[in-house]
Design a protein that fits this description.
six-stranded antiparallel β-sheet, single chain, 2 domains, about 30% helix, seven-stranded antiparallel β-sheet, about 450 residues, Glutamine Phosphoribosylpyrophosphate, subunit 1, domain 1, alpha+beta, 17 helices, Rossmann fold
Length: about 450
């Protein structure tokens, strides 16, 4: 499973925004390491830099100084639809009624192929293989002369998950799909406005979070203020549950819920889940000498369990090297197999002879956990009991996560016992769906959780 993208947009009355967009993209680097781009506007003239690579490699001081404008958008990408190639880097630039526009997209369009064929028949020539260009094409082919009317029509044609930032006419349009599957928030600074995939961006840029953009809403950022409208009357929140479990930063808020708090709550919900069955709290206390997180997304979960059970937390027992990417989103199987040792390294003095409670966020391909368990064994761990804060992943996603095939998803064909045996752990425990939802603190109907056992998709598969 590979998410995704991150988007950011800034309108400022005083300062040029390229450097702020750069820092915004750095705060969203975890959402996509393949390519990055910034587009700024000076009186309608767009200046852009889009390249393959991580944010810090794409941009330099000199390159940022050359992007002059007080309004702009940025994008950091992991491919979900379309190859990892320079032609698919975003934001995409096109035209509408003689003016240039730029679009950045986090999500995935369900009816992409159908719309692509339609646009081709109408004479549009595609320059990329990304589904995002379909949005550009529909806008360009629209019969409406007013941009906002054309945007409404286009949004009502596309299906799936999309959080968009669109730069047009000295304005930034922030758009969320009818289910709000991917996060998108808006904030305010002393001299302007920010929109981003995550609220942490607004914190980093010394802004104040205003609110989440609602499902089916368009928020227009202009130098003199904000306004909004709904592009559809059929809207209902179905935020991706995996955002809280893995994708989002701990310090972000999504729909008013702090991600770190939700992850800590998952420990309490884990205990509640089996209170009448296995009495997990007692199990942990009797069978684990230390609690060790698989950093970073397992940190809050492990800290919560340590608090609930009183078992010592040893966050340094499994060293996490931060100058490499996330193993979940490495593009090749070969890289994923080689990656865990580069990213993680146990400290034998802290685990030798100990019964380790190992806490992680999810098991998808069954690539990482067996390597981690093996490393801990070699470091001298006596027993290893694995706790996963995500329900068992059993299905693929078509709404903004580039999931592998069903054959690659361990939970689609293997039982919990089979996964435990292949992982090499002495025991394995998944948090069940209802308890994961309860940890966030929102109704189950507010989430898309179709990839998880017992879950349902916000948008049915084709």
């Amino acid at each position: 499973m590979q998410e995704k993208c991150g988007v950011v947009g800034i309108v400022d009355r005083v300062q040029h925004v390229a450097h702020f967009l750069y820092y915004g993209l750095l705060s969203l680097q975890h959402r996509g390491p393949e390519s990055a781009g910034i587009v700024v506007s000076t009186f309608g003239h767009l200046h852009s830099l889009r390249r393959m690579g991580t944010v810090d490699r794409v941009f330099s001081q000199k390159r940022l100084d050359g992007l002059v404008g007080k309004i702009g958008i940025g994008h950091t990408r992991y491919s979900t639809r379309g190859q990892s190639q320079n032609k698919n880097t975003q934001p995409f630039i096109s035209w509408f009624r003689g003016k240039k526009l730029a679009i950045g997209h986090n999500g995935q369009l369900k009816n992409y192929r159908q719309l692509r064929r339609r646009c081709r028949k109408l004479g549009y020539t595609f320059k990329s293989t990304s589904d995002t260009e379909v949005i550009n094409a529909l806008l360009q082919l629209s019969q409406k002369t007013d941009f906002e009317e054309a945007l409404r029509d286009t949004l009502n044609l596309i299906e799936g998950a999309f959080s968009l930032v669109i730069l047009y006419g000295e304005k930034v349009y922030a758009v969320r799909d009818r289910f709000g599957i991917r996060p998108l928030v808006v904030g305010e600074t002393k001299t302007g406005y920010i929109v981003s995939s995550e609220s942490a961006t607004i914190d980093i840029l010394n802004g104040q979070l205003t609110r989440d953009i609602e499902p089916g809403e368009v928020v227009v950022l202009e130098s003199h203020g904000l306004r909004s409208f709904y592009w559809t009357e059929e809207r209902q929140l179905k935020i991706c549950l995996f955002e809280y479990i893995y994708f989002a930063r701990d310090d972000s808020q999504i729909e008013g819920k702090r991600v770190a708090v939700a992850r800590r709550n998952m420990a309490a919900q884990f205990v509640e889940q089996v209170r009448q069955e296995e009495k997990l709290k007692v199990f942990v206390q009797k069978n684990c000498d230390i609690i060790v997180p698989v950093a970073d997304s397992g940190n809050a979960f492990a800290a919560g369990m340590a608090q609930v059970t009183g078992i010592p937390l040893e966050p340094q027992a499994f060293y996490r090297y931060h100058y490499v990417g996330r193993s979940f989103i490495q593009p090749s199987p070969e890289m994923r197999k080689k990656f865990p040792r580069l990213k993680f390294n146990p400290i034998p003095e802290l685990v030798r002879g100990k019964r380790v409670g190992l806490f992680d966020d999810s098991i998808v391909r069954l690539d990482t956990i067996p390597k981690v368990v093996e490393m801990l064994r070699k470091a001298g761990a006596k027993e290893i009991h694995v706790f996963i804060s995500c329900p068992k992943i059993t299905g693929t996603c078509h709404l903004g996560i580039n999931t592998p095939t069903l054959e690659e998803i361990a939970g689609s064909s293997k039982t919990k016992i089979q996964i435990q045996i292949e992982s090499g752990a002495d025991s394995l425990h998944f948090l069940e769906l209802d308890y994961a939802v309860a940890a966030v603190g929102m109704p189950k109907s507010s989430f898309c959780h179709g990839c998880m056992q017992g879950g349902t998709y916000a948008v049915p598969k084709e």
